[in-house]
Amino acid sequence: MNPQRVLELQPHVGAGPVLFGMNPQAVISSLAATGLQPTGSRNAELIYFAENALQVEFIDGLASFIGLASTALFEVRLYGIDPFDTSAREVFQLIADHEPEPHGYDRAGYVFPTTILTLYEADQQYDRLKGKRAIWGQIGLGDKRYLEVSNRLEGNHR
User: Could you tell me the pLDDT band of residue 158, with boundaries at 50, 70 and 90?
Assistant: First the structure.
C-alpha cells in the first residue's frame, strides 16, 4: 500500500492530508497528491473520493466532516489499528476509552461527543477482509461545527 494512502484519523484535526477548515479546492489538491480523485459531489457541500469510500462534507465552504468506508484504495488507522479489520465492538470500545464518560454500544450508529468520531451501522456485510465479523459501514470524524449541526438535527447527542 502506498504510504500516502494511509489515512490516520486524528480527532479535531482531520484524516490524513484532509484537515478540518480546508476549502474544497485544498481538499481536492491534497487528496490528488495521494492519487485519489473526486468521484462525485453534491453542490459545494459534499465531495466523494475513492469510488465514494471517502466523503468530505463542508459547512460554510470549509471541511467539517470526513467519512470513510472500507476499501482497497486506502488504509485507515485509528489509535493505531485498522478499524475496518477490527470488530465493531472493539472499535466502539477503543473510541469510548478516549471519552471522559462511559458509552453504551449501539450497532445502529453512534456519535461520540468529545472526540467527535461517528460510527454507522455495524454489520457482517462490511467485513470485506474476512466476511465473518460485524464491522462499521462508515467511520467518520467531525469538527465542532459538525457536532453542533448534528446535535440540532438529532435534538441532542448520544
Answer: very low
